[in-house]
Design goal:
The chain has about 110 residues and is an all-alpha fold. The protein has two domains: about 40 residues; about 40 residues. Helix content is about 60%, strand content about 0%. It starts with 12 loop residues before the first helix and ends with a helix. Pfam families: HTH_29 (PF13551). One of its GO terms (cellular component) is nucleus. It is found in: Nucleus.
Length: about 110
């Protein structure tokens, strides 16, 4: 017997605000879940986060900071397409970038 799993989707800010609004109006988490087509666990999670932090927005995410700006990324691409046989070292030098040549090559391959 094959068990199908639900595909989880992020809860939208609009849905989260609706959970809180309905809860403040006196609805139970179970009724909110039934009305919005969401699990009771999800409703409780956002009510708890709202009570702890006072907001229903996403928390800032951690991660490595960008090495190059969007403008620099576009300049890398433009240079690579204009000068088809230019090396990543020469792109780095031409654009006066502080990143490594391997990063320039990586950016060029991604796009």
């Amino acid at each position: 017997m094959m068990v199908l799993q639900r595909v989880s989707q992020p809860t939208t800010l609009e849905d989260r605000a609706k959970f809180i609004w309905l809860w403040v109006k006196g609805n139970s988490a179970r009724n909110i879940a039934k009305e919005t087509g969401t699990s009771v666990t999800t409703v409780y999670r956002w009510i708890r986060r709202w009570r702890e932090r006072g907001v229903v927005e996403n928390r800032p995410r951690s991660g490595r900071p960008r090495i190059t700006s969007t403008e620099e990324d576009l300049a890398i691409l433009k240079t690579a397409f204009t000068w088809r046989h230019i090396s990543s070292i020469n792109i780095k030098r031409r654009l006066n970038l502080t990143c490594s040549p391997s990063y320039v090559e990586f950016k060029n391959v991604i796009y």
